[in-house]
Amino acid sequence: MTSAIIINTCLHKPEALSVEELRQWYEEYTAAITHTLVPESTIVREVHDDELNEVTIEACILELQQGVCVRDGFCKDCQDLFDDWPDLGDPETTGTHHSTDRYCIGTGADWKHTVARDCHTLVLEASSRLGCKMCAFLLQAMKDCELLYTFRRIEARLKYLGAKDTASLSIQNWGENSSQLLWVNFPGKINDHCNEGIASYIKFYSNALDPSGEYCADRIYKFLTQ
After folding, report:
1. Where in the chain are the domains?
2. Residues 6+ away with beta carbon under 8 Å from 83
3. What is the pTM of this model?
4. Are residues 68 and 125 in contact, defined by beta-carbon separation less than 8 angstroms?
């Protein structure tokens, strides 16, 4: 059984909402400007009263664990990320960012951004319990910001409506610094700048010697395995 099928069995529609109300919320959520979407935003706070069935979620996490393989401290998704870290150093012009008017030219002295991987909260929790250090790190970052259950409630709403969107991990070159910034996006939303939206709440950085990401991946790996 795939992880998507397993997740479908444990995340349900909020009982207090009608289908029409849920669809209205979805339209407003998808239309929300990502760069201004924060935990205090009305559309995000609307999910706070959604009830999560912890018994069902726990059973789901246990079932998800059966499909997770953790070796040497990392699950396959995280190990694949370290082995093939996104290269943000390609010398290509991709336009200007709306708030900085700086060209993202891929030299390392820019703000070039990419999405590295999906970060469904249930999958992260299943992998972290089996010993994946990176998944545990990302999960703890959500907990420290008191956003884990907010993310999970949004995931539940999106799942019920048939949307496959989930939370995701963003990576961005840090301007003229030799480092890269990482953060976890709201489910179904992609914030492409470290100083805006959700990135202002749940970001961390890794020292990197070049935008190819080779050293960034290596240093995160060493940090997590110390």
Report:
1. 3-225
2. none
3. 0.82
4. no
